[in-house]
Amino acid sequence: MLDYRLDEETEALRKVVREFALEVVAPQIGGFYERDEFPTDIVRQMGELGLFGLPFPEEYGGSGGDYFTLCVALEELARVDSSVAITLEAGVSLGAMPIFRFGTEEQKQQWLPRLCAGEALGAFGLTEAGGGSDAGATRTTARLEDGHWVVNGSKSFITNSGTELTELVIVTAVTGTKADGGKEISAIAVPSGTEGFAVGKRYSKVGWNASDTRELSFTDVRVPEANLVGERGRGYAQFLSILDEGRIAISALAVGLAQGCVDESLKYAGEREAFGQTIGKNQAVQFMIADMEVRASTARLAYYRAAEKMLRGEPFKREASIAKLYSSEMAMENARYAAQVHGGYGFMNEFPVGRFYRDAKILEIGEGTSEVQRMLIARSLGLG
Hints:
Cofactor: FAD
Low-confidence stretches: none
Keywords: FAD, Flavoprotein, Oxidoreductase
Protein name: Butyryl-CoA dehydrogenase
Family: Belongs to the acyl-CoA dehydrogenase family.
CATH superfamily of the largest domain: Butyryl-CoA Dehydrogenase, subunit A, domain 3
CATH architecture of the largest domain: Up-down Bundle
EC number: 1.3.8.1
Number of strands: 10
């Protein structure tokens, strides 16, 4: 019989993160959002809580947990704010996880302890301006010269790439030509501050305003040959496997946003009075909030199912795509409903649902668009 109740340890973690989100993040994140400022001190406190080390072994400074515990933490953070949640998700899934999954023992010892402690952030440089969802269209190149990789090119929309905590970016680059004539794409770790590595200004974004997202450029950037992460020519394949896990994490984040819309709407509906009674007594508002709760609850089950299969070592690609697709679209719907419940206040950034609305859209785009998820699900069914 299925049992999706959290065990005692995970439930204790959930409560700690929930308390942190309400007491530390909620009172001040609106200001960071309005100033378009990265909340460095909040991120450091997340590190002190051990959130960046959740799915990593203790030997590398981690907490010895699993990927599902990370997802639970992401959900609770996103119930209050998605900027800090995506900072954690990208720092773990895209910054540290490739080193843990594919790096050498020397690379793990060098990078993971600080990444797990939240003392440093890592990023993953995959997307390029002309590529978008076509990550195989990489134009950035890296050639071996005197025991060093020489990297040239640029990357776009890279999260956690320019903060004062950022210590490295793992970059995908064309390192040669395969036997079939295709591109040989490898992953190479480039430390921050390396000569020729330039970090652009923060993007002016619709949402995730307290998250760091930038363009990167590489001009004859030289790093040691030992900075190759994983096998040469396997960088793209490695990323795809990392992305499958990341989709579960993004689904958890989307569920958090969807649940946050329920939380805020319940609170507002119980306080706001119109025509002599609180608006929560109106059936139209009751039905909107009931539908929001249905979406959040169902989306949660989807990412729980995907995480369950992943942790059992079973194929989970289809379930990850289902969870990511459904939860991101339901987050968008809940944000729209929550703004409607709040009326004019739902259009104000000072109210959390205004930020939720702005933050929700990227969930249907980042780490694989909704169209890509539908394509992957169709393929898994034998179509296409």
